[in-house]
Amino acid sequence: MLYRAGYAEKDINEAFTRFNVTTMTEHIPEKMAEDIADEVARVTEQKRNYMENHRDYANLNRRVDQMQESVFSIVDRIENVNVTLQTIEKQRIQQQDGGNLMDLSALLTSQVRNRESARRQTITSIADKKEE
User: Fold this and answer.
1) What's the rounded Cα separation, in Å, for the pair 32 and 17?
2) % of the chain exceeding 70 in pLDDT
3) Where is this region: Disordered (predicted)?
4) Model-level pTM?
5) 9 Cβ partners below 8 Å, 6+ apart?
């Protein structure tokens, strides 16, 4: 199994002889105990660092999610304001168009009245001339 993982036979034998507990039944040499303690401390430190990094990552991820939610909320509010402004603008234009139509109607009516008045004056002046 270790051969498949890419370890050389020399490294495998060295590791087994270094940590071979079966040949030493009475006591574990002091150097071996220190090596094991160092290895356990190193692995424990790695796990602690990993957990801290994971906790930091989870906190950052949560903060990013909160910021994203806030940004989406702001964008929704801006879109609502934009829709409201567009509605107000349409109403204003319709009122102006209505006012313009009323102004146009009044202008056309006054022109028709002026023409009618001019026509009546012309007819009366022609009638007056015929009477003379």
Assistant:
1) 11
2) 83
3) 113-132
4) 0.42
5) 3
